[in-house]
């Protein structure tokens, strides 16, 4: 059995949020994506509520670990630190390289299968911050980050849907 890290959940959670912000992504940005996904289903929904729900998703250790791993890989490639051919595959976000999506799917698993359809939809149309993260002209590598942000939004939308269903049933 593996050893637990010496870092507390708070330290890891704070790092995950800080690393997102360093890469230009805020909880507000992700909340806007969640709102985009859910507004037609819940007319009373607000962006502020969506952002609150994003923060709750970000409290999950599995989510934090995925964020830290993906951003680290993007930064490594951005600095030219990966070996070829992986360096080029990640840098250009090769269409046949699916490891970035597979890593992001681990976030969706935390909130059930409903997130997969939301993720596929938002990944295809790339609204809001996702459009910026996919702009290769910035010189930044966001191969993993764009999928992680999309998965965060999809997982949060799933969380909202599950909670709304539970509230209606009780």
TrEMBL record:
<dbReference type="InterPro" id="IPR026038">
    <property type="entry name" value="Put_PGPase"/>
</dbReference>
<protein>
    <submittedName>
        <fullName>Phosphatidylglycerophosphatase A</fullName>
        <ecNumber>3.1.3.27</ecNumber>
    </submittedName>
</protein>
<feature type="domain" description="YutG/PgpA">
    <location>
        <begin position="33"/>
        <end position="162"/>
    </location>
</feature>
<dbReference type="Pfam" id="PF04608">
    <property type="entry name" value="PgpA"/>
</dbReference>
<dbReference type="GO" id="GO:0008962">
    <property type="term" value="F:phosphatidylglycerophosphatase activity"/>
</dbReference>
<dbReference type="InterPro" id="IPR036681">
    <property type="entry name" value="PgpA-like_sf"/>
</dbReference>
<dbReference type="InterPro" id="IPR007686">
    <property type="entry name" value="YutG/PgpA"/>
</dbReference>
<keyword id="KW-0378">Hydrolase</keyword>
